[in-house]
Write a structure and sequence with these properties.
The chain is of the alpha+beta class. It is built from three helices and 16 strands. The chain is elongated and about 70 Å long.
Length: 293
């Protein structure tokens, strides 16, 4: 009987012992409201490596720390409703938090954010629902890789962070900003400067800013580009005169198997344009050369 009473007492301790509650929030592409208590830290578990985007207005009022899939928020004074952005470091996917801070006497429980319904098919996905073994060839993407890369690069440069469409497996590539681009458009009076580069599978896209140095309008033609490119897309079809508000644009250059630096002249092997001429044209070129001699 004594052993029975001891067992019941132990069970009661287990059943009624205080537990550390965790608030579950489900991310379904709608901003999540996360209140804070001034002076107390609140932990948010996201179970992924994320970057936290914090408005500059909160620099002196909100302490933000991130480690091993957990984010620690501590407000030092009241904060009006403000939006934070959590971006997955691998996929670029966003989670939006609407935080606010008010005085209180006790801290709030931690928050765990879980995914809602299965996400819709993303732009540029292969259509595979789960990873496949390395020995199995990957399915072709629904959208060609050059299109996916160019769209992602354009959004990354010009669109707000929250609107950039995540693409699985895309990665940012380190790029020399002083990369010499004098041979890119040798026939046009433009100044070129590399802005950024991204990679997906075996292809790279490099964004290059073009600035007109002449006092007249310039039409941009991809055929004037010199290099080994899979695709080239101009942000605008022409450039205004130097000093005009339209004198600058961006060209997106897609290369395969290597970056832009290895796809430009004179890195590439010299090409004899006469090899593409008909036999008669090549003979005429040879005769002309003999006559000149």
């Amino acid at each position: 009987m004594s052993r029975l009473r001891h067992a019941l007492a132990s069970l009661a301790l287990v059943l009624f012992a205080p537990a550390h509650a965790v608030e579950i929030m489900r991310w379904e592409r709608l901003p999540l409201s996360v209140p804070l208590v001034v002076g107390y830290e609140r932990v948010i578990f996201v179970d992924r490596n994320v970057r936290v985007g914090v408005p500059a207005s909160l620099d002196d009022r909100l302490r933000v720390q991130s480690a091993a899939g957990a984010i620690y928020l501590r407000a030092s004074e009241p904060i009006e409703p403000t939006r934070l952005q959590l971006q997955d470091a691998e996929t670029g996917a966003l989670i939006l938090l609407d935080i606010s801070a008010q005085p209180g006497e006790a801290p709030l429980e931690p928050v765990r954010i879980i995914e809602g319904e299965s996400p819709a098919k993303r732009y540029g996905d292969t259509g595979e629902e789960r990873p496949v073994p390395a020995t199995v060839p990957q399915s072709a993407r629904e959208t060609p890789v050059p299109v996916v890369l160019t769209r992602y690069a354009a959004q990354s440069l010009y669109a707000p962070l929250r609107t950039v469409e995540p693409v699985n497996s895309i990665s940012h590539v380190n790029l020399r900003r002083d990369l010499a681009l004098d041979t890119l458009l040798p026939t046009l009076p433009v100044r070129a400067r590399a802005l950024g580069a991204w990679r997906l599978e075996d292809q790279w896209v490099t964004a290059v800013r073009l600035t007109n140095t002449a006092a007249y309008w310039i039409d941009l033609d991809p055929r004037a580009l010199q290099g080994d490119f899979v695709a080239a897309t101009f942000q605008h079809p022409d450039l205004g005169p130097a000093g005009d508000s339209h004198d600058t644009t961006v060209v997106y250059l897609v290369t395969r198997g290597r970056g832009l630096a290895q796809s430009l002249l004179p890195t590439l092997s010299p090409v004899d344009a006469a090899l593409g001429l008909p036999a008669s044209g090549a003979a005429g070129r040879a005769r002309g050369a003999d006559d000149a001699q």
